[in-house]
């Protein structure tokens, strides 16, 4: 069966009928006033696209269903006396707004246009409908450049002194029809078809073809919509909102999609068709006005809205038309909404008894929560956007406009906040992007270089503001309306909405963050509904999740913040910052040590400092696990730069004031210099070749735990060895750690457990996880390095070098450093989990790469059976929410599979 009448489908048949068709069917079966029609399946489209031929049965099936529509309407398609007209509309499984084609008014011919005029008692309406058909059919079906039609319309308006289309009378439109027919003949080499069925069949084929229009292909690639789904085609009896003052067209939402508030939201335009609303020919009025214009239709619409909400159990958006006082539903779907509205609506629906708390949790997601946590512009501040572009990376940023990287860096170094404004960015702009509060470009979409890099940095970005005329050389841009902004002028950009403002818009902290940090009490009477909704859904998530959530934090303040955000410990304390600043000189001494005494002196100088670091951290996370990772980066990162030092030594030599210490240091830096430091002497390799380094760190950790215990605390510390590739590395470093811990125990009397585990961040570690597990108390997947080493990508370089091109060309939809590459890296994780647990059933498993806070990746880690994820403090709530959602969704899937 290739064609379904509306009464034969339902809302769950989106694969076959597309979203629009499935929902038209659902509304029909609910008894709502849907114009009669039918849907040609996506399967028919796929066959057509595969073979280039319309499937043989389609013609007869369309004939049968068309006859039913004709009977229902009491008219025949294109009948010269009283024609039935139909629309032919695309409708894929996933909404692809405006990407595919639609043809309205099929069935009008030189003869039936007169019948329509007579039946409607309106000449102008009939000729206007006919010229619209010629125009749409010409463009969509016959492939004629739309400019020909637009030019002819403009010329006619000039000639008649008519400012708007609506000022053209019936005679003028009739003349336009003649001109349009000439255009069709001249451009396509044939006359506009006068056989209505031929029009219909050609329009159906054209809509099938529009699945492969270039813009549709690009859109699908960006949205990760599969290219072989195909589109359904809906053939619907036309109803006319432009049939007089008692007609009109509108859109409605069952709640406010911006705030989630209950009420009547939408717009209405009297005596108009949907395309007039889009074209903005006249201003719409708020939907509530309809109550005064046509009370009966308004009341009926409100009833229908209530029915739809109750039925879909969610916010619905609706397109409707009123034809001479009669209401028709043209479309509905579960509507898009802002992040704040999503949380509010989900909890409202629970209160109204429409959905369960679990369902409410599945209706929001971590991306939305993350959006709500960015600082935002103060809603109370008056402001008017000067331009609007793509919301490429969320947040609110204010600063002085600068037009090149050098100025951005220079001004930023004097404490000035800047916004980097470029037509587009390239890898050369990277330093400027780092220095800027936000980035604004006039070209490129959400996968442009600026957007990708800004998101990677967590920096606010608005891109593709095409209405800005940016003159980089002169250091200024012009916005619509002649607004000029020069270098140094303050601008504000909203990466959540894509708005650009002149001057400073005050920024406020997100109330959601203030709630997470314990500053706002969700139970207080004056708490915002949004905060109450977030609190409630977080509680549901925490109650359902099986994944623990820890934080990556190195400093006591960060740890305290993470704890407030709900972290149940630290999954990764990177110790490298503990070797920076003043402490570099001890690292230098360690590297330069020529005998044990010198080396021991350097290590002993570091010991109390390290111990104090760990004590602070253990205090902030008292009672919760703290995983300390031993030093990972190559040592030369702590030493002077090779070039700088070489120059210094050379200059000193020339001046005859040689510094033997510098010269020794230079020899050491040269010795430690590596072509590929990320693959060189780092991680456990350092621990094995730099005597005493790891022992120092383990001693500091164990002594800090002992000190905390003496002070009445409950320290729970874990030691983690990085970059292990083989069990021998882990065994050797573990033996040393155990010896050191035993020594501290003996001296301090500390008896608490100190598990020793390893990171799994090399493919070889994953592939030999069974062996490694025998020497490890826990694994923590370092998915940053695991992604880098699995793909052979340098994590420091690729985002700027070529990821934008890869995203643009669809190699991947999202950076594998942002969201876990399940097919590749995920497979290694699965393998290591399985073989690690088989070797050691009590092996504790976590992840501490950036993916631990990425919503999609959290679902994967849940499925993989990890014990916890660890991520930056700010993402802890996101991970908690997603871990809860993952559990709810997995249970729902298991439930439906067992039914
Ligand atoms: C990792 O590689 O995933 C990790 C957490 O370690 P780092 O990012 O410090 O290399
Ligand atoms: Mg790593």
UniProtKB/TrEMBL annotation:
Active site: 449, 848
Gene3D superfamilies per record: 1.20.80.30, ATP-grasp fold, A domain, ATP-grasp fold, B domain, Phosphoenolpyruvate-binding domains, Phosphohistidine domain, Pyruvate Phosphate Dikinase, domain 2
EC number: 2.7.9.1
Keyword line: ATP-binding, Kinase, Magnesium, Metal-binding, Nucleotide-binding, Pyruvate, Transferase
Domain called PEP-utilising enzyme mobile: residue spans: 416-498
Enzyme class: transferase
Ranges for domain PEP-utilising enzyme C-terminal: 533-884
Necessary cofactors: Mg(2+)
Start and end residues of each Pyruvate phosphate dikinase AMP/ATP-binding domain: 54-283, 291-343
Family stated for the protein in its record: Belongs to the PEP-utilizing enzyme family.
Protein name: Pyruvate, phosphate dikinase
UniProt organism field: Actinopolymorpha singaporensis
Lineage: Bacteria, Bacillati, Actinomycetota, Actinomycetes, Propionibacteriales
